[in-house]
Design a protein that fits this description.
The chain has 447 residues and is mainly α. Helix content is 63%, strand content 6%. The protein is built from 18 helices and 5 strands.
């Protein structure tokens, strides 16, 4: 007997066949899934092997200092009153407990980032399957997400760990919300509300989950019920945004030129979407067009496009550059990964009779991304760490004062590095004083 199960992603219905299987088939299916999950986890670690031997980079010291400042329970009220860092509360607590357990050792902080990335990559496969997408494109999507070089800052720069946490809670929200739409499970709605709240405490773009929830309600033909249920989430988002903008005078990112509502977000969005699609997204689009894979994968492609376009939008109000930094594409790149999954599925259908074709293409993809991360990106992050490493090496010689003549980052980075790594007072740092033979001088160039 065969039955149909309907799944929804971003409001788009997807029909996936399911049926009764004999025990041997079920065992083989479970083994296949476990193998896929193991390969995805392996790829997520493989791509970021260099970070296990990487020193802290600039703002990493500020992130650890924030963990010390706001992590203890007695400091949570102060954290709640900080209009910027209360929106990073989950990553600040993660940082605090990482230091409490392992000390100020870069290996363990980067290990926590890679573990989160592994969990997110595996979770993407689970979510794709839950929504009814076929095993092959779902596995390719998760595998691509695991090695994708475009969002590398989120994993290789510990100060961007909030991107990883946001992604996790966003997927938790989608799973719980969909379960509630389908079954009316009150516990699932509670899980969705909790995940939404934790996502808001991870980073501001979590507000995009509100329109995504409405789209999913449309796809499930539960618009009225979904609309009423999403109202508390929308109201929470409105209060959340009000709490940010009402504190503009003391909110760092609203007066340091980081972002503005008057920024040309549409140009930034187009530029960032184009950069994210290059190169493998473009190749997938070409393959889908040439080999007529649009019809067979239309729901997957539309879901991927909606997800990528919508989740990228909140990051587009930048004022300091015309494109979104790589770390901010982590959430949106799940949509790109689904598009790659559709492209690979089409390639497999067209060239699957050549047993070497699909493994060869997958090997080229993995080699391209891992090779780039291991070489160019590895060198870039080492260069970004040179300034603080130079400063700390001088401070470890036992001197009482250090004259800093040139430094590529703000004074707060140097001060945090001294306090976090060596527990030394920031008063030992002297800025831009005339050379003095009795005081060592640090002059670090911009990476």
């Amino acid at each position: 007997m065969r039955v149909n199960e309907t799944a929804v992603v971003a409001g788009l219905s997807v029909v996936s066949p399911a049926g009764m299987v004999i025990p041997a088939e079920a065992a083989r299916d479970r083994w296949s899934t476990s193998t896929i999950l193991s390969v995805i986890a392996f790829l997520a670690v493989l791509a970021y092997l260099p970070v296990f031997r990487q020193p802290f980079v600039s703002d990493d010291y500020i992130q650890i200092a924030l963990g010390r400042q706001y992590g203890p329970i007695g400091s949570w009220w102060a954290l709640a009153q900080d209009p910027l860092y209360r929106c990073r509360a989950t990553s600040i607590l993660l940082t605090y407990w990482t230091e409490q357990l392992f000390g100020v050792v870069p290996l363990w902080f980067y290990t926590s980032s890679v573990i989160l990335h592994v969990i997110n990559s595996v979770f993407l496969f689970v979510v794709a399957r839950y929504y009814g997408f076929r095993r092959w494109p779902s596995a390719v999507a998760a595998g691509f997400f695991a090695v994708y070089l475009g969002h590398q800052e989120a994993v290789m720069w510990y100060a961007a760990v909030h991107e990883l946490v946001l992604f996790f809670f966003a997927l938790c929200f989608l799973m719980c919300w969909t379960r509630w739409l389908r079954r009316g499970d009150k516990l699932a709605y509670a899980g969705a509300a909790a995940s939404f709240g934790l996502a808001l405490l991870s980073k501001e773009p979590a507000v995009v989950l509100v329109p995504l929830a409405l789209l999913m309600a449309v796809g499930e033909r539960e618009l009225k019920r979904g609309f009423l249920a999403v109202l508390p989430l929308a109201a929470t988002s409105a209060l959340y945004a009000y709490g940010i903008f009402i504190n503009k005078p003391v909110h760092l990112h609203q007066h340091d030129g980081t972002f503005s509502l008057s920024a040309p977000f549409y140009l930034t969005w187009v530029n960032s979407m184009g950069r994210m699609l290059w190169l493998w997204g473009l190749l997938s689009l070409i393959g889908l067009t040439v080999w007529k894979g649009w019809h067979a994968n239309r729901r997957l492609i539309l879901s991927a496009t909606i997800w990528a376009g919508l989740t990228l939008l909140p990051f587009c109000f930048l004022t300091y550059m015309p494109r979104i930094p790589s770390r901010h594409t982590y959430l949106a790149s799940a949509g790109l990964a689904l598009l790659i999954g559709a492209g690979f599925a089409t390639f497999r259908q067209r060239f699957g009779h050549y047993r070497w074709a699909v493994p060869l293409l997958a090997t080229i993809l993995v080699a391209h991304h891992c090779g780039y991360l291991w070489t160019k990106k590895r060198q870039q992050f080492l260069a970004r760490a040179e300034a603080t490493e130079m400063l700390l090496s001088v401070a470890r010689t036992g001197v009482d004062r250090i004259n800093i003549r040139c430094f590529p980052y703000g004074p707060e980075v140097a001060e945090a590095a001294i306090r976090v790594a060596l527990n030394k007072p920031i008063s030992m740092l002297v800025w831009n004083q005339p050379p003095d033979s009795s005081t060592p001088t640090v002059c670090a160039s911009h990476p």
